[in-house]
Queue: 2 jobs
Job 1
Amino acid sequence: MGREGRFVRDKIVYSQLSVYLTFDSLCFNTVNQCLFFLITVAYVYCEWLFGYWKRKNVPHKKSTSLIYGSIGKLFKAEVSQGYFFKDIYDSFHGEPFVGFYEFQRPSLLLRDPEIVKKVLAENFNSFHKNGLYVNEKEDNFFNRNPFVLTGTRWKEARSKLTQTLTVNKLKFLPESISKIYPSMKTFLDETEDNIEAYEFGTNITSGMAASWSWGIEDSGF
């Protein structure tokens, strides 16, 4: 092969190499642009998602995590539920309500007693969903608790309780509790062995129920 042939061959190889480099550079730039676009979209979405209470002009606890929202410490069991909500309550003194984020869901903590009254009494039909989840198959006892029921099941339980927990009957509740106290104190003073907490609580509950509901003077001890 002569000099001209080698020159043509080298030129073809150089052209192919240039094409490959240009294609690789184009792919690299395209990938970078796609990543930049996705990151920008994710950032804008997160700003919009965790800016809900800011748009509503509601004082709120800012989100500290994209996954957990404001409840990171609570979800990781670093603090108790009571301490977590008390911290939010104390941090916004004078505010009627405070917003926070349960994961990506905006939630509201009420501080004003009048608003609490409206939610729990006057407009409770619109606020009966409490956010608690109970597996009905695994916990057949707790899922009947009216404090965790929602929808139709809550309305049925509420109608039964309102017939029983009338104002006149509730007036006698403190008296029923006070009648059990002397027997309970005597039982504790005379018992030297360890006390079974479950049995102790059952005795108190049965004594209160018998005295308050049917007028039976039975302390349960």
Note: Residues 128-165 form one domain.
Job 2
Amino acid sequence: MIVRAVQEKMAAILFNCMSLLRDIYNQVKPYPTKTKYGLPLPKKCHVVLTDDEIGDRPVLIIGDVHGCFDELNDLISQAQSRINTSDLFIIFVGDMLNKGPKNQEVLTLLRELTANGSASAVKGNHEESLLREYRSMRMNSDYKLSKKYQYLSTFSAEDFQYLQNLPYSLTVPKINSIVVHAGLVPDVPLERQCLIDVCHMRNLVYGESVFGPVPVAHSKPEIGVAWATLWKGPQHVYYGHDARRGLQDLPFATGLDTGCVYGQCLTGIIIDKNGDKTFVTVRAKKSYYNNNE
């Protein structure tokens, strides 16, 4: 009995030591600087929106727009009517463009709102994809855009520069929140999150390391478990990228991709200065794309 008690005590000590080492490693491991397509990094990968930038305005966080300009206008109008003010600060969770019908119009509005201090956005995997296409166009004058990317021919160099400099995360202390496109791995500091994961992940699987089991990001929703179900704060995370699961309203995370471009809904959430939250949703006018990915 004494030997077994000692063994259990030693096992507990070893487990605690390994957990401590893993936490230390997460704090000191090299900063991730790689993007999926080898794209240049933005000026800042992680941006903090100060209280002064937002002021007393309610915050409206909007899910994946994917070029659905008409639905975006309807959603903003609905939010303004719901709280009886047109003075909102709008945050987009990425994938503002691609697949939908009016990409140039969405980008023009986004740039106008950003320029007048009324909006910010993070980069989504589809912004990365179109920047990859833009790079190919610049490197090869004979490069032919596929049908999916024909709309890029109307974009200006300034449009592409704006998209290139979108950050991968926005931290919003006023509402104790972080906005990313896809997700975050628990217990890893924001600045040390893998940028590919932040932009592409949906799930977590557990892999082995010298420190024991560690969560590893995965992009396929059928492998592992939804990362947001394991996120325990303290900051609330708002994200998109997961239309198959639809609206995800969890204690410390809210997924806002409700598949507008696939004929479903465009969803946003209003957070007022008191922290009260209200969902707003508009139905898609039609299905614009048939590949629900």
Note: Residues 44-124+165-283 form a domain with the Purple Acid Phosphatase; chain A, domain 2 fold (CATH 3.60.21.10).
